[in-house]
Amino acid sequence: MKLRFAPSPTGFLHVGGARTAIFNLLHARRHGGTMLLRIEDTDVERSRQHHAEQILQSLQWLGVEWDEGPIYQSDRLHRYRERAEELVSNGKAYRCYCTVEELDAERTATEAKGDMYRYSGRCRRRAEDGHPQHDDAPHVIRCKVHPGPIEFHDLIRGDMQFAGELIDDFVLIRSDGNPTYHLSVVVDDVDMEITHVARGDDHLSNTPKHIVLFRAFDAREPVFAHLPLILGSDRKRLSKRTGATSAEEYRDLGIVPEALFNFLTLLGWNPGGDREMIPPDEAAEIFDLSDVNKAPAVFDPEKLLWMNGQYLMRMTADEIYPHLAPFLPGDTNLAELRSAIELNKARGRTLKEIAAQLEPYLVDDGAIHYDEEAAKKHLKGDDLAPRMSDLYDALEKTEPFDVTATEEALRALAESKGVSAAKLIHPLRLALTGRGASPGIFDVMVVLGKDRTLTRLRLLIDRLSRGSGTPGETPPT
RNA sequence: GGCGCAUUCGUCUAGGGGUCCAGGACGCCGCCCUCUCACGGCGGUAACACGGGUUCGAAUCCCGUAUGCGCUACCA
């Protein structure tokens, strides 16, 4: 068994393409088959080498591996021409000298009458009447399509039937000598012995053409599986209008590849048992293309975000750090951030959000700016400054400086002063993080360490006694 | 226009004649946990497109209708 993912390098890796790649990979792994990567760059107008490289990178980032390739179709142009000539010589294809202008005029005229346009077949008749086939005059090569039903079985859609009389004699070789998609895809699938073709739904109507070609080449037809499209919230093909469309954009948003892989795996397929989280290797044990849904699915970024959060909180700091580093300012290192990441990894849904949570652990003590609203709420009362001074003294004496000891010290102080622990905790949180919300305050102190904790607390006390603790409010006397 | 495909909570989905006055997940709402915010726990909100059949019985099978999407290129 051999499957392939065959993107055309006309842009970034689209999430729809990414899912197609994932489904191909999973099916191959499930059945012990091979995965081939092929770059379909026969459209010289739109294909770009840097797009091909980008797609390869995105696939690697996502964790989609391939066993063979990448193979570039642009390296095989001679092969497509060779096979097309074969079809011309055995009468299954012919040269067509009609110009684009002539065809466009015919099409416009037919459509103006409200009829369906079909190629007139003029050059086909000429060829069949024995007119000479000059290969020096500009021409394309067209494949003959005969009337009658064309049938095939689709793993997802079931039995399909198309009427041959409705399909034009399609172009195989363009007038510039380059092959069209239809030719190159079939020649390659034959040469590379592809057994299963899983691709987007948008190719379903192209499949009868490909069947015609497989038969013309007298080759065994692969099994087809047409995957339903991924839609945007507008229920149209996912586009920029409704959000990010490329794997790369999701990476830049702070999505971890494992989460995107998992999310895409579940778009149109499910592992049963109401399971949401499933790693690739487990999916590969049970995945089958024939279990894929027929209906298109809307891409829901909210759920992706949730899933990303699930992955972040389950990953270790060491696993997160490489993905996180690009979102952190300046140069940081894992060793100094490990405990801070552990403490904050469940507190954001994206790497970006985690990075923001990490800010208090990265900046200088003097750079902690108090959130205005939180300051207004927690930095008040005449006795605050002396109370925080007492806390300072208590913490200074605390040894070891761990979660248990610091908590005991703070609560003991609160009790002796007859105030709730919260009256100490909230101002302390402001002092240490500048924020109204943070992880458990004792964890924060420990991660920050005794020195930084005391320095930041001292800064708060100084500020309170200078009377500038509460912006916009009357300073305590 | 023609051809093709699809249609279960807002979204992803389970369901393949009775166990479904439809289950899970995201989102949303409420409660709990609690030093705050997350996390977590508990509960709630919300769907079988419509109309005909077939059948003792249909979300499940058949036929229409509607809607949506895709294709209809010397793009893939």
Task: Tell me what the structure shows.
This protein is mainly alpha-helical and 477 residues long. α9 (257-265) crosses α11 and α16 packs antiparallel against α17 (403-417). The model is unreliable at 469-477 (pLDDT under 50). It contains 20 helices and 12 strands. It has helices at 15-30, 49-62, 77-89, 100-112, 122-128, 181-191, 207-216, 247-253, 257-265, 280-286, 301-314, 317-324, 334-344, 351-362, 372-378, 384-397, 403-417, 422-433, 441-448, 450-466, and strands spanning 2-5, 34-39, 68-72, 93-96, 140-143, 149-154, 158-163, 171-173, 196-200, 223-227, 230-231, 297-298. The strands form 5 sheets. A 3-stranded parallel beta sheet has the order 1-2-3, covered by helices on one side. Strands 4-5-8 form a 3-stranded antiparallel beta sheet. Strands 6-7 form a two-stranded antiparallel sheet. The chain binds one RNA strand of 76 nucleotides through α4, β7, β8, α6 and β12.
Q: What's the SSE blueprint?
A:
Elements: E1 2-5, H1 15-30, E2 34-39, H2 49-62, E3 68-72, H3 77-89, E4 93-96, H4 100-112, H5 122-128, E5 140-143, E6 149-154, E7 158-163, E8 171-173, H6 181-191, E9 196-200, H7 207-216, E10 223-227, E11 230-231, H8 247-253, H9 257-265, H10 280-286, E12 297-298, H11 301-314, H12 317-324, H13 334-344, H14 351-362, H15 372-378, H16 384-397, H17 403-417, H18 422-433, H19 441-448, H20 450-466
Parallel strand pairs: 1-2, 2-3, 9-10, 11-12
Antiparallel strand pairs: 4-5, 5-8, 6-7
Helix pairs in contact: 1-10, 6-7, 9-11, 12-13, 13-14, 16-17, 16-20, 17-19, 18-19, 18-20
The chain binds one RNA strand of 76 nucleotides through helix 4, strand 7, strand 8, helix 6 and strand 12.
